[in-house]
Amino acid sequence: MPLWLFRRSTSLTKVGARVRTLIDAAPREGAAVDRLHALSSLVLEAVPYSTDQAASDLSAEDVMEAGHGVCQDHAHIFVTAARALGFPARYVSGYLMMNDRVDQDASHAWAEAHIDNLGWVGFDISNGISPDARYVRVATGLDYRDAAPISGLRYGNAAEDMSVSLKVQQQ
Fold it and tell me: Judging by beta carbons within 10 Å of its beta carbon (0-12, 13-18, 19+), is residue 75 exposed, middle or buried?
C-alpha cells in the first residue's frame, strides 16, 4: 500500500482538542524514532492502561476524554497523533506471547509508524516497548475496523454467543 494511505484519518483516528493537546506536547526536534518513542510515552502517561472499558468503537478523542484505555485505545491515539505529526502510521492487531503464561485473555494491538530509511517501526504503547519476536502480527489497517482479528456479519435476529480460547506459545 502507498504510504500516503496511512496518513488518512478515520472516524476512530480523527484529531480533536484533547488529542491536539497531546500532539502539542510531542517533541518536534531530534531523530524520528526518538520522537515517536517520546510520543508513545506521552500517550501512556495521558491514558493509563485499564480494562475498565474495552469497547472497540471508541475514537482516540473519546479515549482521551475517558482518561484510561486498553491496547487498542493506545494504538488509536498513537496513530492519530503520529499522522498529525506527518508520519504514515497504521494500527496492528495480533497476539503477544507472554513470558509467564500460555493461556491468554485477549488479542493484542499496537501501532507502527513509517520512518524514512528504517521502514515500519512498531510501538507497543501499553507495554512501553517496540514489538519483538514475541509478537504475532495478524492484520494492519488504518484503525481497528480495518484490522479486527475477528469480524463477521449476521442476518436475522437470532441470539448468538461466542467463546474464545487463546494460547500463544513458541512451537
Answer: buried
What pLDDT does residue 133 have? 87
State the greatest distance between any 2 C-alpha atoms of the chain, in Å, as a whole number: 56
pTM of the model: 0.87
**Closest CA relative to residue 137, chosen from 95, 103, 102:** 95
Q: Which amino acid is at 164?
A: V
Rounded CA separation 82/149 (Å) = 23
Q: Which of 80, 115, 72, 109 is nearest to 94 (CA)?
A: 109
Distance CA 31, CA 3 (A): 20
Query: What's the rounded Cα separation, in Å, for the pair 89 and 43?
Result: 15
C-alpha–C-alpha distance, residues 76 and 92, integer Å: 10
**What are 85's three cell numbers?**
505529526
